[in-house]
Design a protein that fits this description.
The protein is mostly beta strands. The protein has one domain (about 15-165). The protein contains two helices and 14 strands. The chain has helices at about 20-30, 145-150; strands at about 15-20, 35-40, 40-45, 50-55, 60, 65-70, 75-80, 85-90, 90-95, 100-105, 115-120, 125, 130-140, 160-165. Strands 1-4-6-9-10-11-13-14 form an eight-stranded antiparallel β-barrel. It is globular, with a radius of gyration of 17 Å. The chain starts with 14 loop residues before the first strand and ends in a 6-residue tail after the last strand. Residues about 1-5 have low confidence and may be disordered.
Length: about 170
């Protein structure tokens, strides 16, 4: 018999993982006409986290600045179409440990964006495979994000934390 081996913590999947706000998702799922769709690079895992596929990014790990781009389309609706939230192709722009999460408005090939949340995070950790990982990133809704959720959450209100893993330049 061989000795037991300890497996390292599994790496999260590449991309952005976010539960949005558990109470909101629970509310949506409780509606008789609830609709949750994930397409074009977005998925939802068994724990209810929405995952957006990693796209090309321009992040400087030394400076802690740059843009992380993700692809995917999450749509949540209910109340016979009177409630509709769409999270399309999120990007995160980092400057000095803080970030802004924006989504595409669907216009101008994704360049027109709405800043839906501010993020507070330390430096990412580098995994053995060279990827960069941010875990439990604090998320607070912005004024524009509050509008996206029809004012149900005031600007500055915490949302669920998010998780990021992007390919890196390799171990240093």
């Amino acid at each position: 018999m061989s000795p037991a081996t300890v497996s390292p913590d599994p790496l999260p999947p590449l991309g952005l993982s976010w539960g949005i706000k558990r109470s909101f998702i629970d509310y949506i799922n409780g509606l008789p006409d609830a609709s949750v769709s994930v397409v074009n690079g977005a998925t939802v895992d068994e724990t209810g986290l929405f995952r957006f596929a990693a796209e090309n990014s321009d992040y400087d790990a030394v400076r802690g600045t740059g843009i992380l781009r993700f692809r995917g389309d999450v749509r949540l609706s209910g109340h016979h179409g009177m409630m509709f939230v769409r999270l399309l192709d999120p990007w995160i722009v980092f400057t000095g440990g803080r970030g802004i999460l924006s989504i595409s408005t669907g216009d101008d090939v994704g360049q027109d964006r709405t800043a839906v949340a501010s993020l507070r995070s330390g430096a990412p950790r580098q995994a053995a495979d060279g990827s960069l990982i941010w875990a439990d990133v604090e998320v607070a809704i912005t004024d524009e994000g509050s509008e996206l959720f029809d004012g149900q959450y005031a600007a500055g209100q915490p949302m669920d934390p998010l998780f990021i893993r992007v390919a890196g330049q390799g171990p240093s």
